[in-house]
């Protein structure tokens, strides 16, 4: 992958002289993640036998530090999504930037990000993981700020880097505490020290610091404010970062550490409550949005909260919901972001208040978007329905007091209803009815551009219906088992009979349909509810405090020896 990024940089200069077009370059570079995807698939038979592959490079032998890599079913699941969705996004990029001779820069950043993300999920040492963790923050900054002349892009990129970078500092300290307590920084050592880590007096500090790192990267409340503003990135970056890679890093981190830091009261309440609040806030805020990408961004926040809440549970069904949710979200969200990019690319518009009626001029885009949106809404026979059903199956927690269990159940139903309304609003206000602005005209994109979102959308439709899915179910089961710490059974069958989750799903769909029908009134009510102090205001205030502190600190540099001596002696 890194070699491909270098190829992008080297071949990009000749492309300026039209020796290699952006479309040709993207087709060439897509071979790298495709080859990596095939390479990972070759390991599946061994991974099904619960084998673990490790690679180690001596880094600082005197200090016992190694650059190590670790491949089991959990890391392989994430790596397969990174390479599979990455291949489609690279091809899509060639069409999105068609005719732009400078797009080789974007391809270079995209492949560098792909490489750092692969390194993160396959890291076999906490220090190796941290290096790639910070690498994703830096390269994502370059992707979000790609349109560097746009003030919104610069501001969104800085906010993402500031928040995730701050979480990275906390993560580093937490990882060092884990390595110190376990007596080694390799996952081979750490994953066998669960009892030692949980009984350590440093356990609360380890957990909170690592959780802060994960919460900032995966846009959990109250750190979620960076993700919607990162929508200033070009659509291929949004489709990739916010479906299968950047925002899933924190999910992977907490899933990886669950067997050794989980199964405690602190773990349960910290992750479950944070995830539940994030799930509700993201879905609620999404209903207020008029921009296609902003709506998708807040729905991503909501889904990330759901995944984090699942990791906080100690039930096997929760980890089944986790892996199915990760796969379902990657498929439909990457497709929807690319569909939004097609709409923006062909009409020059993303505002839902001005779109409408595109079904006639962009029929194939409509069909692809409809499949992905219905999966996001959690309707059968889409794969998203299975993800929602398994989520609702975890709603009743047998070890919790009745009132608390009902709160989790109610939160899941409300979120399901809001997600249904979001999906319906996205589909209807973009493609159905009449155009709300006569100046907005659309036409169908190229076949190659449509193929990229069509592949994950069709997979959302057929994944649970294809015969012979034992290998896929085994991969998900082993990944869930690696995250849970014990064996988890995973079935991809859509129909499990008349049961409580199906009843809760019907309630959520009914409420969601009502929210969609009366969405204009609901959105007006939302706008009337003004909040004086918002998290964005807190963020701006924090920046002002830092600026003021920097100003006061630099006042010491006055060129007066007397002042310097006073400061030194006082110190």
Give the low-pLDDT segments. Answer: none
Percent in strands: under 5%
What average pLDDT do the residues reach?
Answer: 87
User: Which structural category fits the helices and strands?
Assistant: mainly alpha
Shape assignment: globular
Major sheet: order of its strands? 1-2
Number of helices: 27
Share of helix among residues? over 70%
Distance between the termini: 50 Å
Number of strands: 2
Encode the helix/strand succession as letters.
HHHHEEHHHHHHHHHHHHHHHHHHHHHHH
Radius of gyration: 24 Å
Largest sheet: 2 strands, antiparallel
Key features of this structure:
71% helix; 2 strands; 3% strand; mainly alpha; 571 residues; single chain
Explain what the structure shows.
This protein has 571 residues and is an all-alpha fold. The protein is 71% helix and 3% strand. It is built from 27 helices and 2 strands. The chain has a two-stranded antiparallel ribbon with strand order 1-2. It is globular.
């Amino acid at each position: 992958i890194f070699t491909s990024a270098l190829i992008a940089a080297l071949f990009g200069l000749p492309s300026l002289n039209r020796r290699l077009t952006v479309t040709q370059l993207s087709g060439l570079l897509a071979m790298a993640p495709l080859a990596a995807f095939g390479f990972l698939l070759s390991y599946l038979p061994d991974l099904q036998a619960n084998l673990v592959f490790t690679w180690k490079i001596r880094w600082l032998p005197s200090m016992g530090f190694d650059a190590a890599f670790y491949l089991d079913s959990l890391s392989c699941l994430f790596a397969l999504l990174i390479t599979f969705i990455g291949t489609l996004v690279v091809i899509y990029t060639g069409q999105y930037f068609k005719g732009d001779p400078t797009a080789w820069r974007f391809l270079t950043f995209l492949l560098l990000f792909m490489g750092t993300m692969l390194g993160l999920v396959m890291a076999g040492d906490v220090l190796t993981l941290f290096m790639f963790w910070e690498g994703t923050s830096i390269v994502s900054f370059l992707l979000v700020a790609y349109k560097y002349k746009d003030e919104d892009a610069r501001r969104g990129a800085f906010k993402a880097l500031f928040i995730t970078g701050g979480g990275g500092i906390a993560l580093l300290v937490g990882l060092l505490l884990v390595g110190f307590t376990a007596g080694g920084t390799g996952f081979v050592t750490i994953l066998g020290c669960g009892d030692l880590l949980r009984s350590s007096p440093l356990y609360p500090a380890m957990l909170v610091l690592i959780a802060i790192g994960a919460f900032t990267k995966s846009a959990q409340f109250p750190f979620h404010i960076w993700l919607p503003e990162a929508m200033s990135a070009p659509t291929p970056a949004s489709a990739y970062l916010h479906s299968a890679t950047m925002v899933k890093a924190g999910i992977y981190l907490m899933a990886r550490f669950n067997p050794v830091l989980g199964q405690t009261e602190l773990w349960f309440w910290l992750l479950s409550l944070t995830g539940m609040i994030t799930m509700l806030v993201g879905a609620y805020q999404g209903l207020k949005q008029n921009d296609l990408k902003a709506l998708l961004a807040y729905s991503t926040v909501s889904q990330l909260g759901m995944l984090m809440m699942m990791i906080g549970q100690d039930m096997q069904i929760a980890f089944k919901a986790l892996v199915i949710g990760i796969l379902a979200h990657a498929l439909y969200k990457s497709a929807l972001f690319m569909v939004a990019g097609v709409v923006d690319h062909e009409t020059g518009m993303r505002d839902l208040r001005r779109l409408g009626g595109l079904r006639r001029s962009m029929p194939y885009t409509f069909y692809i978007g409809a499949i992905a949106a219905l999966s996001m809404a959690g309707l059968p026979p889409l794969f998203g329905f299975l993800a929602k059903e398994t989520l609702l199956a975890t709603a009743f927690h047998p070890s919790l007091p009745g009132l608390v269990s009902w709160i989790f159940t109610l939160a899941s139903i409300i979120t399901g209803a809001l997600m249904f309304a979001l999906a319906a609003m996205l589909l209807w206000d973009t493609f159905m009815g009449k155009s709300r602005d006569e100046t907005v005209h659309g036409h169908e994109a190229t076949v190659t551009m449509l193929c990229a979102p069509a592949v994950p959308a069709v997979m959302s439709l057929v994944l649970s219906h294809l015969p012979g899915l034992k290998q896929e179910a085994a991969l998900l089961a082993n990944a869930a088992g690696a995250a849970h710490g014990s064996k988890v059974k995973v079935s991809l069958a859509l129909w499990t009979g008349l049961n409580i989750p199906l009843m809760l799903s019907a309630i959520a769909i009914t409420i969601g349909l009502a929210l969609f029908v009366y969405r204009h009134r609901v959105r007006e009510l939302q706008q009337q509810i003004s909040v004086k102090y918002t998290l964005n205001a807190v963020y701006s205030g924090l920046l002002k405090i830092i600026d003021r502190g920097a100003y006061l600190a630099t006042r010491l540099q006055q060129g007066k020896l007397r002042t310097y001596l006073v400061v030194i002696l006082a110190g």
